[in-house]
Amino acid sequence: MTEDNRVVERAGWAPVRRFAERSVLGLIAVIAVGLGFAALLLLVRFHWSPLQSLDHAVADGLNHQVAGSETKVKVLQQISTFGGRGFMIPLVALVVTILLIRRRPRPALYLVVTGIGAMILDPSLKVLVGRVRPVVESPVATAPGNSFPSGHALGSMIVWGMLALVLLPAVRQRWRPLFLGVVGLIVVLIGFSRIALGVHFLSDVVAGWLLGIAWISASAYAFRVWRRESGHPDENPIHEGLEPEAAADLKIAANEEAVLPHPWAKGAEILVGWVLTFGLLYLLGYSVTRWSPGFDDAVPRWLQTFRTPELDKISWGWSKAGDTHAILIISLIFCPLALALWRQWRPVLFLVLTMVGELTLFLTTAAAVGRPRPEAEQLDGVMPTSSFPSGHIAATICMWTAIAIVVMARVRQPWRWIFPALAVLMPVGVALSRMYRGMHHPTDVLGAVLLTAAWVSVLWWTVRPNAHAVTATEAAQADRELVVASS
Question: What's the predicted TM-score (pTM) here?
Fold first, then answer.
């Protein structure tokens, strides 16, 4: 055998050897994690005294540190929400939707299957073990159900872990340790918050982490087998992500040029536009506060004559459609979907600046004008902010107008006209509900319209949200051409 043949043979065996080494090491790690969870399960199930003493000592010690500090409790509760189903299920659903938009169904299915497994494991084991939650001297939080294992620790380990594996190919090589470190820190903080709040023992959290690692390992191995059987090479280690070839589709905006050319000059223009918009709003607010027209109080009192329990409920729903939570939720859904579809940051920047500017203009103008609410009975009680301008209506008009501007330039299908219709119907509904509930005058609505018209115009001329606008198909094709050219 020649030297060249021996080199070729060694090169041919190298991938096989690396794969075998990784497989053995991975199997050993999974077995160790599984044995650790099984040991904890048995020790908890049979009430091993040293473990019980440690659990109670940690729970009591952290309770003494947290109890009596409202700030600490609120911070811990906020951290804990990042491991709750109310946060993680919408997060996974959003990422799955983005993956499907980017035509990556395999990792999307992996997220769904792995997530469903987490939802089944948690209640099943809690019923099997039946461990009651800690009883501490100064309770600061409560939670339903049994204690072992911690559902937040298990769910956060699985959800944040599987998201890290799926999204890892989109992260640059040098930033991957930091990315994984941030994910790990989130999981640790969630587990710590559950112990500090007194709703779980230390062993509950550790067991949740161990079981989560075992389930992620098993599902990731099944995914790699599926991928290998589909004809993809299995040479990449797990720290390259589950589907390394998906890197181009996972990158947010690979083909986009400068998001905002000359950012300092544009920032100065936006700031000047904000000041001018505030000046217009203050001038109108000062005028209607000092010389209020007669119809300004008459309209809310007239709408009050139509009040019925049914209309009260309907107006409450319309009013909620314009409050901070609804606007924030819609914005948080639209922005990632916009990035997934059009692979451009500029429309997202346009929407973010629109809403940040609306909020700051509303708060500043309301504080400067200080207009009282209408004399009609106010169904929402006394509000801390002044009546002019209407924050609900301004936020609704700004958000739906910005979304309509972005969508109309990038969608060719007839259903795009839904968004201009929403930009009209949603503010009208919110405005009528706010006046019906006695919270605003008609001129407060006029102030919201003026705010939107002036501020969106400023951002239209400075940000140019539709510059280089492309459809979703064109954006995907441009990214693919960029990947081919770079390779």
Answer: 0.77
CA angle 53, 121, 42 (to 5 degrees): 35
Domain ranges of the chain: 3-250, 263-476
Q: Where does the pLDDT of residue 339 fall: very low under 50, low under 70, confident under 90, or very high at 90 and above?
A: confident
pLDDT at 254: 65
Judge whether residue 237 has pLDDT over 70: no
> Across residues 23-45, what is the average pLDDT?
66
18 pLDDT higher than 70: no
Average the pLDDT over 52-60 and give the result: 84
